[in-house]
Design a protein that fits this description.
There is one protein chain. By secondary structure, the protein is mainly α. It has a domain of 181 residues: MFS general substrate transporter like domains (Growth Hormone, Chain: A). The protein is built from twelve helices and no strands. The longest helix is centred in the middle third of the chain and has 29 residues.
Length: 265
C-alpha cells in the first residue's frame, strides 16, 4: 500500500514577483512623491488664487516636509504592530483627504494644514513601502522588488510634475489635486485587491537614534542626503517662477532639470 505525501509550497520559496502588488506599491510611491512636488509647477496659479506671495505659496512644500520630518519616527514606532495593509491603506487615505482639502480650499491657512497632513501621511508611507515590497518577494528577488516599488519616484518627478503642470495650466491647479484624489481612491481599491497583508512587528527592544548614528558610515550618508535633498527641493519648488523669468534660457534649463530627474542606469 502506497502513501502519498502532500507538500505545500512555502510562500517564501515562490520564484515569481507579484507584479500586480508591486505596481500598486509603485503607484503609492508615485502618489507620495507627486503630492510633495506637485505645487512646483502650479506655484504662480496657486499664489494668485490664494492671495499670497510666491514665497509663501512655496511653503506648501516646506510644511509637507515638516510634517514628514516631525511625525515619521514617532508614528512609525506607534504603528509598528499594526497590520501592514491596514497601515498602508490609512496612509493613502490620508493623501486622498489632504489633496481634496487642498483642491477646494480658498484659505491659505487651511491649505497649509492640509499639506501638513499630507506630509504626515508621507512619513508613514516612506517608512513602510520599501520594507513592504521586500516582504512581498522571495529572498533572491527582494532587491528587484524594492526597485520596482521605488520606480514611482522618478516617474513622479520626470512625468508626473510636468503632466500636473500642464493640466493645472489648462484647466486650473485645483483639478490637478482633485485628479490626485481620484488616483488615490482607485489605488485604495487596487491595494485591497492585489496586495498581500502582513502582520506588524512584535514588541522588542528598541535601539536609540544615537546608537544608529554611531554605526560607521550612517552619519556621513545622512549628512550628504540632507543637503542633496534640500538643494533639489529648493530648485524644484520655485522652478516655474525661475523659468518664467529666464525667457530664452528656459528651454535648455528645463531639459537639464528634467533629465536630472530620470533614473540612472
Amino acid at each position: 500500500m502506497r502513501t502519498h505525501t502532500v507538500v505545500r509550497a512555502d510562500p517564501t520559496t515562490r520564484s515569481a514577483l507579484p507584479l500586480a502588488a508591486l505596481l500598486a506599491l509603485a503607484t503609492a510611491v508615485f502618489v507620495t512623491s507627486l503630492t510633495e512636488t506637485l505645487p512646483a509647477g502650479l506655484l504662480p496659479a496657486m499664489s494668485a488664487d490664494l492671495g499670497v506671495s510666491l514665497s509663501a505659496t512655496g511653503q506648501t512644500v516646506t510644511i509637507y516636509a515638516v510634517g514628514t520630518a516631525l511625525m515619521a519616527i514617532p508614528l512609525t514606532a506607534a504603528t509598528a504592530r499594526w497590520r501592514r495593509k491596514r497601515l498602508l491603506l490609512a496612509a493613502m487615505a490620508g493623501f486622498a483627504v489632504a489633496n481634496t482639502v487642498t483642491a477646494v480650499s480658498t484659505n491659505y491657512s487651511l491649505t497649509m494644514v492640509a499639506r501638513f497632513v499630507a506630509g504626515v501621511a508621507a512619513g508613514v508611507a516612506w517608512a513602510l513601502l520599501a520594507g513592504y515590497a521586500r516582504r512581498l518577494a522571495p529572498a533572491h528577488l527582494q532587491g528587484r522588488a524594492i526597485a520596482i516599488a521605488m520606480a514611482g519616484i522618478p516617474v513622479a518627478l520626470s512625468l508626473g510634475v510636468p503632466a500636473g503642470t500642464f493640466l493645472g495650466q489648462a484647466f486650473g491647479w485645483r483639478l490637478a489635486f482633485l485628479l490626485m484624489t481620484v488616483l488615490t481612491i482607485a489605488l485604495l481599491v487596487w491595494i485591497g485587491w492585489a496586495v498581500q497583508d502582513f502582520p506588524g512587528q512584535q514588541q522588542r527592544e528598541k535601539s536609540s537614534m544615537s546608537q544608529a548614528l554611531r554605526v560607521p558610515g550612517v552619519a556621513p550618508v545622512l549628512f550628504v542626503t540632507l543637503f542633496f535633498v534640500l538643494a533639489h527641493t529648493i530648485l524644484y519648488t520655485y522652478i516655474a517662477t525661475l523659468l518664467a523669468r529666464l525667457g530664452d534660457w528656459a528651454a535648455p534649463l528645463t531639459w537639464c532639470c528634467w533629465s536630472s530627474a530620470l533614473p540612472r542606469c
